[in-house]
Write a structure and sequence with these properties.
alpha/beta, Rossmann fold, 7-stranded mixed beta sheet, 6 helices, about 35% helix
Length: about 190
């Protein structure tokens, strides 16, 4: 297996979804591509990819945006991991998370999918839950709004002002995760409760 990392930004393809809460993972991967000066290119694994290094002398990465719908993200992710010879412990899923507040980034290894169909499909395709996750908080739906309706809506006007900072923080979390490991990234992004 190579020492390359596969960073997957989960979301739905097409311009009508690009600003949705569900696509925040792809927004983060776009930010990382900008940082390495890369341009996404179509890959036969039904994904767009950028290859490069994160930072000077940093780890080699494959940034990927599956071109399938969120609920069937596993196929492209599994195909990319095989093509680039990347083990699941070097796969990082960047995704929206309703169980943490907007403007919050958390990281974890493995665990459940919390009703997130993109993660569920990745787990099935990779035959393991033991891949890393960068969870980008999008908050909970207001009132009795259906979760699916909520994540398929764009961020509201107030959130849009803070969105570039949230995306930047999540991209920083990915860099720290790859450079210094999960514990260091968690210590920075999971402040101790007072």
């Amino acid at each position: 297996m190579t020492d390359t990392w596969l960073i997957v930004g989960l979301g739905n393809p097409g311009p009508e979804y690009s600003g949705n809460r569900h696509n925040v993972g792809q927004m983060v991967v776009d930010e990382l591509a900008g940082r390495i000066g890369g341009t996404f290119k179509a890959h036969k694994a039904r994904a767009q990819v950028v290859e490069g290094r994160l930072g000077i002398g940093g780890p080699r990465v494959v940034l990927a945006k599956p071109m399938s719908y969120m609920n069937v993200s596993g196929g492209p992710v599994s195909a990319l991991s095989r093509f680039f010879d990347i083990a699941p412990d070097h796969v990082v899923a960047v995704h929206d998370e309703i169980d943490i507040p907007f403007n919050t980034v958390k990281l974890k290894l493995g665990g459940g999918e919390g009703g997130h169909n993109g993660l569920r499909d990745m787990t099935k395709a990779l035959s393991t839950r033991d891949y890393l996750r960068v969870r980008v908080g999008v908050g909970r739906p207001p009132g009795r709004m259906d979760t699916a309706d909520f994540v398929l809506r764009d961020f509201n006007a107030v959130e849009k002002k803070d969105l570039p900072f949230l995306i930047g923080e999540a991209a920083d979390a990915v860099e720290l995760l790859l450079g210094q490991g999960l514990l260091a990234a968690q210590q920075k992004h999971h402040p101790a409760k007072a």
